[in-house]
Model the fold of this input.
Amino acid sequence: MPSPIVSARRAVSWAVVGMASGTIVTSGYHSVHGHTRVLAEHLADGARLVPGARVHLVEIRAEDVTAGRWHDAGVLALLGRSDAIVLGCPTLMGSVSAVFKAFMEAAFTPFTTQAWKDKLAGGFTMSASQSGDKLAVPQQLAVFAAQLGMQWIGVGDMPGNNWSGGDRDDVNRLGSWLGLMSQSHADRGAEDAGSRGDLVTAERYGERIAWLTQRWVNAVSYETPG
Ligand SMILES: Cc1cc2nc3c(=O)[nH]c(=O)nc-3n(C[C@H](O)[C@H](O)[C@H](O)COP(=O)(O)O)c2cc1C
Done:
């Protein structure tokens, strides 16, 4: 439950957003076995809490990669119309997944034209190990966003599960700020993706990105709740 202070702040912001035009927040994600998809869905749910935000979730699909090249004109057009782009994929061999890398390389055209310049950006990843070298993924995504001229948004939550009373269900239990990190047990299906805390962190990150997009595009007053 949000604190009364947060609720009050939201009520004020809602009034302002009512006068502002909408924003488009799109998350493009790749998932092999569905765990990353669950994270993406919770992130989108959080973004949808923000009035005026039209939220799209698009899957970057292996079927759209031919001879190492990804192409989906519809997805690229949607990203071109978006105010914020949130990028996500599983950590595979300590890196972004191959399919997602093919998608990133397909952004060479908006790179050359800088058509995505000053959109907002964020990123997330899922892996099996607690670390699993997954920091490499938000680093790769943030560099990608920088090359495209986008402005990167990190996670705004303090770390959880870093003290004797900590718990797997804590918010930001993996203590990641560059991007959202989650972990799923390797022997469990997508129905057990992440932890409760990871999914809440995804919702909070999605909401933060959508609010900051309102602030960026419509000059709506917003501060991330503490
Ligand atoms: C080829 C391969 C490489 C992987 N590499 C890593 C890794 O480097 N670090 C890690 O923690 N997990 C690794 N994993 C585990 C996946 O990140 C994990 O299963 C994740 O939940 C998959 O997400 P998805 O269901 O969205 O595809 C790897 C899995 C596969 C199949």
Remarks:
- The radius of gyration is 17 Å.
